[in-house]
Specification:
Blueprint (H helix, E strand, L loop, with lengths): L3 E4 L12 H6 L5 H16 L4 H22 L5 H12 L5 H12 L1 H4 L8 H9 L3 E6 L6 H10 L8 E4 H4 L6 H11 L6 E5 L2 H10 L3 E5 L14 E3 L5 H12 L1
Parallel strand pairs: 1-2, 1-4, 2-3, 4-5, 5-6
Helix pairs in contact: 2-3, 2-5, 3-4
């Protein structure tokens, strides 16, 4: 029996990188370039350094992050990522400057948030009246505290009874601990949850391995549509509650 629904956040609740056009319209750097500029500026307050050097160290750290994330299912926190870059550069920052870099980096998507996907609020309001809801999402750069603030900005946080963010759980999807955290917060068994997300490996096969049902959501990203093992494919929020109800009825 399906008693709870878990949601990915990126390209499921919000449209990933839809904040980039907003940044461009305001004459701001891309997120990638701004992250490097934030650290470069702080380092220059202590001792001059070339931007290209900082950029190369940042790129190397990002490549290492991706290996750890995708192969070991661990997301470094912003704090850990900045420390890795500084270690590569052989540099240190005073505590106040280091904390400023971490905060400014983690706040970028909060200050200029990506767009909420059309119809999400109505669907969540409907589903929350019948199921317990939880976010299960990798944090990547914006920490879980910031992701909660993004949800609050769109008046969506109210519909969720739990949050399993990778920087807080200690692992990323599809590691079991992410879904165990959600189940514990919601007071249900893992196999009583249904997960919704846009990536077949993390959001479909991961939950399936735990005995859950899973729906591939393709409103903004459909790259996995042709090879998914999802129990259903949903292209827009208007169709999601009915799809979930059908799977719930079939599981009784």
């Amino acid at each position: 029996m399906i008693k709870a629904i878990t949601f990915d956040l990126w390209d499921t609740i919000v449209d990933d990188d839809s904040d980039e056009p907003k940044r461009a319209a305001q004459g701001l750097r891309s997120k990638r370039d701004e992250r490097r500029h934030i650290l470069w500026t702080a380092l220059n307050e202590v001792e001059p350094i070339d931007l290209a050097t900082v950029t190369l160290a940042y790129d190397v750290a990002d490549a290492s992050f991706n290996i750890v994330w995708k192969e070991l299912f661990i997301n470094w926190t912003v704090d850990q990522r900045i420390r890795a870059i500084l270690n590569g550069l052989g540099r240190r920052l005073p505590t106040d400057l280091f904390n400023r870099v971490v905060k400014d980096t983690g706040d970028m998507e909060v200050n200029i948030p990506p767009n909420a996907i059309e119809g999400v609020k109505e669907a969540l309001a409907d589903l929350a009246s019948r199921y317990k809801l939880c976010i299960v999402s990798d944090a990547i750069v914006t920490p879980g505290t910031g992701l909660r603030r993004i949800l609050e900005q769109y008046d969506l946080k109210q519909y969720f009874s739990g949050f399993a963010f990778s920087d807080e759980v200690g692992h990323s999807k599809p590691h079991r601990s992410m879904f165990d955290s959600a189940a514990s917060q919601l007071g249900v068994q893992v196999e009583e949850m249904l997960h919704i997300g846009d990536r077949d490996h993390n959001d479909i096969k991961g939950p399936h391995a735990l005995g859950m049902k899973a729906i591939l959501f393709t409103a903004t990203r459909d790259a996995d549509k042709g090879h998914t093992t999802a129990d259903a494919i949903v292209e827009r929020y208007a169709d999601l509650p009915a799809a979930i109800d059908r799977l719930a009825a079939a599981s009784k």
